[in-house]
Amino acid sequence: MSNVGDEGRRAALAVVAPGTELRAGLERIVRGNTGALIVLGFDAVVRQICSGGFELRAEFSATRLRELAKMDGAIVLDRECTTILLAGTQLVPDPELPTRESGTRHRTAERVARQSGFPVITVSKSMRVIAVYADGERYVLEDSGALLTRAHQALATLERYRQRQEQATGTLSALEIEDRSTLRDIAAVAQRMEMTSRVADEVAGYMIELGTDGGLLALQLDELTAGSSQERELFLRDYAPAPRPDGEAGPAVGARSAGSARLAALTADELLDLPAVAQAVRPGPADDLEQPVSPRGYRLLSRIPRLPAAATERIVEHFDSLQKLLSASVQDLSEIPGIHAAVAARVHEGLSRLAESALLDRYS
């Protein structure tokens, strides 16, 4: 999952993604072999940093940006990049602010970005490189062709991970029905889910950087991740820690959100360690991965067509165990408040079919 720093990076790169008017202007500057220093935002802090130049308040366009970049000095846009506010201005940021750059333009850009909080763009005349300074970091814009190649490689990896996740969840479903699922089994599924999620998140990042050049990636990503978030949520609800006497933990939204956050917080090395993954799903001792665990039944009930969410909640709350649910008769189900006889019959028949199908898939 994306951390705060990555979200900041994506927000900065989305502003200059291919297909935007700003990106078109930056590419014109590169082709014209001209450098540039552009601030994306204006407030009292930026006004204090600026010295000289002249006010424009002109509507932004790629051609205007290119012509103004021919002059010395920086260009200041509004935050939405719809208006050119200042041109030919000298930026004088606090010289005490730290910077890792050596060139004058780039040192100024990093310091202005740190002092103002707004993204600052530099175009290097000699290197023909576009860089964005934001959140204390420097991001160099890459060629769309190279990004597309990496994005397609990530999509291929995502497809393989998705297939392995489906295999792991299918095996887990059969083991749950047989009442043979262990902590190792749920850790393996959680591991696959988190790996798939991280690769999907990487592809989503490429889509932001590619802008209009990554249109087809969105369709492929949607196809490969369809239903993933719901499946992850139901899995975590099935295996969230059991309620404590004080009621602080349980299968509520907070418990599964905490489980999802713990999985996302795992490092790459920890994600390969099944005990660490098991602890993220179910906090507590994970020395014995062969200890039996039992789901509540959310995942299996979600596969019954046209079963209302309210009915699922009532059924799980009543039985609180998949094995008890599987052994329940139509009469037992119909005795649950709010579950009518027709719904009870549909649930009983649906569970029987799902159990038979899962076992056939595993042993065929």
Q: Kindly estimate the percentage of residues that lie in beta strands according to DSSP.
A: 5-15%
Tell me how many strands there are: 8
Average predicted confidence as pLDDT: 89
Order of helices and strands: HHEHEEHEEHEEEHHHHHHHHHHHH
Radius of gyration: 27 Å
Task: Describe it.
- A hairpin with a 5-residue loop joins strand 4 (74-77) and strand 5 (83-91).
- Strands 1, 2, 3, 4, 5, 6, 7 and 8 form an eight-stranded mixed sheet that branches.
- The chain folds into three domains: 4-141, YojJ-like (1; 142-288, Up-down Bundle (Ferritin), CATH 1.20.1260; 296-364, Orthogonal Bundle (DNA polymerase, domain 1), CATH 1.10.150.20.
- Helix 1 (4-15) runs parallel beside helix 7, helix 6 (144-177) packs antiparallel against helix 7 and helix 7 (183-210) packs antiparallel against helix 8.
- The chain is 57% helix and 11% strand.
- With 364 residues, the chain is of the alpha+beta class.
- The longest helix has 34 residues, at 144-177.
- The chain starts with a helix and ends with a helix.
- The chain contains 17 helices and eight strands.
- Residues 247-252 have low confidence and may be disordered.
